[in-house]
Amino acid sequence: MEITIRRATVDDLEALVYFNSALAEETEAKQLSRDRLTRGVRAVFEDPAKGFYLLADTEGTAAGGLLVTVEWSDWRNAYFWWIQSVFVRPEYRGRGVYARLHRHVEELAATAGDVCGIRLYVDRENTRAKSVYERLGMTPGRYDFYETELPGGGTDFA
What is the reported pLDDT for 1? Predict the structure, then answer.
C-alpha cells in the first residue's frame, strides 16, 4: 500500500472535520458541534500561525491526518511542535499510516531550524496509542497535564 503524506488544504476541510468528529466520538464519547468544529478547522487555514494539517493519502483516500501546533519555549529559544487531532480511519490502522505521518512531522521539524522537540498528549488509558508512540521513539514526558475549561470555551458539545 502506497502512502503519500501531504500538507492539507482547505479543499480537505470535510475530511478533517470528519476525522475530528470521529476522534471525539471514539476517544471521549463526545458529539462535537459540526458548525463549531468546521469553523475551528477552517481557522487553521485562515491563520497559519495556528498550525497546519498533514494528510496521509492512500488509494485515493485520505486515510489519516493530524494537526501540528506550536509552543514557544523561552528556556530553549525554540519551538515545540505539538501533534494533535491524530486520526486514522479504522480500515487503515496497523498499516503504517500514523508512522508515516509521524516521521514526516519529524523530518519537517528537523529542517525547520527553530524546533527543539515534538510533543503530544494521549489519554492515559489509551495503551494502544501509547505503544505506537513509544515504538516511534517517543518517551513519556516529565510533566502532567492540567486544564481549566472556561464557560463558553467550546465545551458545549452537541
Answer: 87
